[in-house]
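Worked problem 6 (solution included).
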Amino acid sequence: MTFPAAVDLPVPAPPADVAALIRPHHPRLMVDDAALAGIADRIASHELTAELYDELLGHADALLTLPVSRYEFPNGRTLLVVTREVQRRLYVLAMAYRLSKDERYAGRAAEEMVAVAAFPDWNPESFLSVAELLHAFAVGYDWLHECLDDAQRQVVRHAIVTLGLEPAIAQHESGARWTTSSNNWNVVCNSGTIMAALAVGDEEPELANEAMRRAFGSLPVALAEYGPDGGFPEGVTYWGYATRFLAPTMASLQTAIGDDFGITETPGLDRTVDFGIYMTGPSGQQFNFSDAALSAHPAGTAAHWLAAHYGVPVHAWWAEQGAPRQPRALPPLHLMWQGLVDAVPPSEADLPLDRQFDAVSTFLSRSAWNSPTANFFGFKAGDNASSHGDLDLGTFVIDALGARWATDLGPETYDLPGYWSAGPDGRRWTYYRKRPEGHNTLVINPDATPGQAVDARGTLVATGSSPDASFAVADLTEAYAAQGVTSWRRGVALIDGRSRFVVQDEVTASCPVEAWWFMHTTAEIDLGADGQSAILSLDGRRLRAALIDPPDGARFSVMDAVPLPTSPNPDGQTPNTGVRKLVIAGPRAPQLRLSVLLEPLPAGVPGPEPVVADLADWTVDPLPIPA
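Solution. The predicted structure is:
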């Protein structure tokens, strides 16, 4: 078996008969008897682990009286709502049994598996459903193996084979898109396949070997997305989703076989938890580009295992930040791996205040790690053609004074017509949240459709970091090249001891262009009389926006977060209730420089006006923007 030539990963090809290497005893997925004993010891000695155990038993008790899952499609698209509930139930009940030996939990889990095994199919048309049920059944079959009678084992194993592994092989044979893609589907689907093959491989060796051969051949295409530095092009939510399934697979390969065949050597995986840490602002909200959620704690369960495997204490801290949040995703995973590494917060781990993720072309910066009121910005150059991507090159978010001031609206409803049609004429770009005007970026010639070029890429061309300042400058020219733009560069900076923000755009075009500057916010906006400044107010906190050395005719205004009159406005979109946007309509010109100061006012008094410097002259020693 060989991996795709285009994927340069230091992983050896697994042997042809992986099934022969599977340890015969159960449990062997993620935990074995020794690991279970270790969990019991931590429950007795570690407060958070004990809390997680109590919560686990509470969840398990609540499941005892619920009816078994049914074959239904609550969201009208996929079986995923049911799938994820089955997964939660089997994890909770199986781990509760393993730790408590209460046979009620094992019996209820067996009822669940028998019922789901009787489904007519596991929704192979949307293969994530199959993959997640393969994962769930692998855990249930393995962890409860000693409690199932021969008939129940046969029913569950038959379902794994006929409803899961055989359809997975068929998808590879037919060239289903996920088998060759680099997105989260590849990781989730192949991970579920490997987990199930490890669960039944000693009983179904030929099928398990074929399924794993296919999965191991396909997975490196997606693993390469973690390189070189742990970033993930699909954004923080889908990074969390993929990684949450990858970590149990790596763990299971080690417990079931003793070898992950080099998967853990994938470049970037040892640092990928940094992606979640840096993408989260002091407000607790994510830099949620690419259909990502604003408030979540992605990959917290996976971070426990990754922290232990790679020996990174700050990653254990991140995992523990996710453990106490509700609703918890699969609390047994927190319980299994929490406490394996002592947690160290970023401020004590000397984690840098700034971080660039090269492949994602994103820069994150903050004034401190140990303060919820610290200043923070996330700035994205990006790639409009990325999976789940928007037309949002140049977008940014800002936290200050414990609040999110410049916000990303996040995903639209996935069921809207054409939401996944992302070509040059795709319907995705008719939805406000997917278009440039729905982001914190420039819109050039708003009459143009779909806005930014759908295949445009941005590049971070300069960054700087010092104790007193930070900045990133991106070349975003490709976004509007079709509209005559010959150069567009945007810079975002923290200046004056990292106390104030500057967002600056420099545009040159072959003909006069109309530029609109947008920043979405949930704050109230009070414009100054001359239109050169504004005060944003949010829950008693204030931030001042000011134009610095503006071109003639440039003024602030306020708009609702709705499409411009010349833009598409299809029915069914989520109303952006409570969101306004601070706007600058620049003069129509072939050349433009807009520099905006965004200054938190903790004491209510603004500082001196900065001096504008060309982006080409930005440095941090000292950054020449301040007066």
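Discussion: The chain has three domains: 73-226, 242-351, 354-617.
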